[in-house]
Amino acid sequence: MPSPNIWHWPELYEVENRAQDVDGEIWRILAEQCDWTGLDVLDLGCGDGFHLPRFAETARSVVGVEPHQPLVRRARQRVADLSSVEVMVGAAQRLPLPDACVDVVHARTAYFFGPGCEPGLAEADRVLRPGGLLVIVDLDGRSTPYGDWLRADLPKYDPARIERFFADAGFDSRDVRTTWRFDDRASLEAVLRIEFSAAVARRAIAAVNGLSFPVGYRVRTRRKPNGLVHPGG
After folding, report:
1. What is the pTM for the complete model shown?
2. What Rg value do the Cα atoms of the chain yield, rounded?
3. The Methyltransferase type domain covers which part of the protein (predicted)?
4. Average pLDDT value for residue range 116-132
């Protein structure tokens, strides 16, 4: 599935990435769930590699997988000086990696449509070592105001169904409340215009005073079992 925001406006999406979660709440929750120091990390759907250097600060190795070739080139340029990082072309449902080769699979805003992502979840489990962690950072469609704007553009998007899907799939989910903060008003408005339809973007721009607004996320985690799992055991 195309991601029009980053595919068509990668420079502007860089501005968006820098503005997201300025207080580091998502990173704090991730660190609580799994200390990846000395571990092997896969960033699934890594885009142009924005999060790769952060993982590389302490991880033993980091692999970014991204299906869109122009973004792969940008990601490789970003991490050219980081010997522990590799960027590969691939899709979530066909990862170019061997079985049981990573300890953490991280996917940020790559699975928030829930049902339909089962092949990607299965592939993530395949490449995880026993005891490894799959962590999915989702936008929270129930939150205000961002979730309201999201649902306005996607009337078939059902947050309750998404929550049931991940609960049934064995994930624990945590609310995370973040702040998006921009350096100037022009950047804020430009980002809202690449995230939403023209009508919803106008509504969002009118609703935001100043340079920041809250955005809710769900951090979903599922650990791969160690050893054999016996039915009914």
Report:
1. 0.93
2. 18
3. 42-136
4. 95
Task: Give me the pLDDT at residue 114, please.
Answer: 83
Domain count, the chain: 1
Q: Give the helix ranges, DSSP H, for 52-197.
A: 52-56, 69-78, 118-127, 146-153, 159-168, 185-195
Beta strands 172-181; 212-223: pairing state: antiparallel
- The whole-angstrom separation of Cα 217 and Cα 13 is 18
Contact 2, 159 (CB under 8 A): no
- Asked if residues 41 and 104 have their Cβ atoms less than 8 Å apart, the reply is yes
- What are φ and ψ of residue 75, in 5° steps? -65, -40
CB 65, CB 42: distance < 8 Å: yes
What DSSP character marks residue 91? B
Q: Is residue 230 part of a domain?
A: no
Is 210's pLDDT higher than 90? yes
Q: Which domain holds residue 28?
A: 4-223
Rounded to an integer, what distance in angstroms lies between the CA atom of residue 206 and that of residue 193? 12
